[in-house]
Sequence to fold (225 residues):
Amino acid sequence: MNEAGINLDFDRARRLGFDESVFCAGKTAGQIAAILARMEQRGSTMLLTRLSPGTLAALPEEARRKLDYEALSATAYFGSVAEPGQSGRVAVVGAGTSDMSVCREAVRTLGYHGIKASEIYDVGVAGIWRLMERAPEIVRHPVVIAVAGMDAALISVLGGLVPGLVIGVPTSVGYGVANRGEAALHAALVSCAPGVPVVNIDNGYGAACAAIRALRAADKMGRSA
Fold:
């Protein structure tokens, strides 16, 4: 531990197959700048999540110049990150455009780790024909991240259609008793579609990491077969 309270996990990629990221919400600009300086000393790259525009603006100009920032997902890449190479393995499917920030957090996390996700938006079950039109494309992916708020019905429907792994991401989108995503979370957890794991509310990053774990495990089994 050092004076800024920073103790980075440089061994995570070897253990788990993906790097440590920095969750920026709750951290000061000074703490984030110190983390980035440490990464630069090592010649390493880093993914930052939940980096608000205000905190971004408070970072030293030199640090800001080295960030690839996307406001919609509130994510940033620090350092030179290669363009995603793998494609066709993960689809990120969003019920509505209101869910897009969470979808993009998942997409950007996958992209940082070299996986180009297929992005399919505005296919919520309120107009289920929209989903059925895209279903042949969606089911070709071995991993599907389903992102939905309100009653999160999209997660259950995809769980009943997709033969591969479906990872549910409830979002905080919705009125009244949606209660900032709790209704979507509960609905996803009690889904009648079997075998659908669910991450926490608005956790696009966690869903992407789950997808990476699944793909790496499948690749490892394929190599050992």
The mean pLDDT is 92. The beta strands are 21-23, 46-49, 67-70, 75-78, 86-94, 115-120, 143-148, 165-170. The first helix runs from residue 12 to 16.
